Amino acid sequence: MNDKIKLVILCGKAGAGKDTILKEVIRRFPDKFNEIVSCTTRPPREGEVDGVNYHFLTVEQFTEKILNGDMLEATEFREWHYGTMLSSLSREKINIGVFNPAGVTCLVENDDLDITLYIVTANDKQRLLRQLLREENPDVHEIIRRFSTDEADFQDLEIDNYVVLHNEIPSDVEVSAKIIEYRAHLDNVLK
Questions:
Q1: Are 106 and 157 members of one domain?
Q2: CATH code of the domain containing 73
């Protein structure tokens, strides 16, 4: 019997469409998948809601969760902290979440997890347009910084076992959701 917690990881550069694919999986298969809501100490972006997009915590609250062993993984990026609370995971469903390369590296080393990793890709033009159109008044300097940072972060990601999901045209989101569900079904049948 496999008592590991099942985890689907979506990882990709900014604007690749990770969150869009995650939302489609949850919309189509709510009885099979549990959406992981991560924690962060960064301020909310325009339109983000606490407990929906992230659990927005103070540095003190975040640190307390780490010290109490309440975090599955935690990383720091540009003086902001990001992490996943153990309480956000389900043993009854397949957990699905978006993680950065540092989080992926940490999670794949955890023997208590049964991980399926998807790298979400899109061409640079598509990614840039998505980031620019995400907010009414986007911080262009932040978008450029994230674009550059992603190049280095993903170059250093040394993971062997993953599936690539291309997300460039609208129908790719539905196809990606079906691939994730189908592979999860196959994993259950074959184990």
A1: yes
A2: 3.30.63.10
